[in-house]
Amino acid sequence: MDATERWLKRAQELDRSDPLAVFRERFVKKEENLIYLDGNSLGMLNRESEKAVSAALSEEWGGRLIRGWNDGWWEMPSRVASKIAMITGCRSDEIAVCDSTSVNLFKLLSASLRLQKGRKKVVSDTLNFPSDIYIAEGAIHNAGLGHRLCLAESENSIDIPFSRLEALIDEDTAVVVLSLVQFKSGFMYDMARVNRLAHEKGALVIWDLSHATGAVEIDLNATGSDMAIGCTYKYLNGGPGSPAFLFVRKEMREELISPLWGWLGEYDPFSFARSYRPAEGATRYMTGSPPVLSMASLEPSLDIILEAGMPAIRKKSVAMTQMITEIWKDILATRGFTVGSPSDPGMRGSHMALRHSEGFRICRALISDDEGEYVIIPDFRPPDIIRLGFAPLYNSFTDIAVAATELDRIVRDKVYELFSSEKEKVT
Ligand SMILES: Cc1ncc(COP(=O)(O)O)c(C=O)c1O
What we know:
The chain is an alpha/beta fold.
């Protein structure tokens, strides 16, 4: 038995004793030979969501038309918010489901800059998702109050040493904007520790939970978090373009004023009052009409996560990232792969960065259905990162062992040479 066969056997054993294995069949998979490792970008569709969207489309919109709002659409954002609150460890009136992650960051950051009058620094890091940095630059420009953006540097493109944050966060810092889990390396901050550091200096923190929600256990209240934003189309499986969420600590609500006063954030939208009065709870941070069809697909996805439970999801996720690390040591390191993620499972989310000088073409070979027995979908991030996302609800340990066997074969037999390095629009 060679090394890849040994790993396949080990993976099958783990799958047999996996308590989450039962959830796999609740997801839609149209290609028998597909292994989907991109749930960190766009989660898979589940059967309950498929039915819910179809009902929302033909029975509710098609059948009930405008009456749909009073039949349950109006309460959808608050119902969905309360489920996200259970997943992220906060009160339901501290979450609003609305807009995109970028827009929600703009709202919370702009509000924070006003609130933290006199402080001129916004701190983030060089590993953060570019949209967050653009939004920070835009919010600073828009505020016109002379703020400056200071980025903590990484020494290894994997993590940000805590000392770098300590050196940057001071009495002049208004807000710290960080991703809990980094989009490339998967490095995860210690939320409570960063919150404490910022609060000691009087700074606020906005967490981007996009790569963390549904993948790692989050307790916004227990960690003393101020604000957060996040998307729902990755590990929350809400579907392409599903709405984002935002969190604001209850105690901050009265003083943290949204820069966008839309009617959905108004106290009583259908009174059509002449002047804006903020709604109660985090609803005040909503702006316009909620995307009903996207919420219809999101809500059952959240129910599945709550049914499985975040502790079980996280436990399997850690076992999965641990398994690929061990396979890398055993097989893939000799093929020129390096690991671009933290080695401590407690410091990483649910995806792993495998780096290779031929990363892009290897990725294309994995995805191609012209070559090999499987279609394996990870994604590629420049300069050389193959991101493997592990979604414990629908990925098996066998998926990982098969993907590793394919990575080994593609490099050993130079299969990637059959593929061009021309990039498509979405990688
Ligand atoms: C960490 C992170 N923040 C923000 C965004 C942007 O999200 P949106 O397109 O919902 O604004 C993304 C998108 O993938 C992301 O990964």
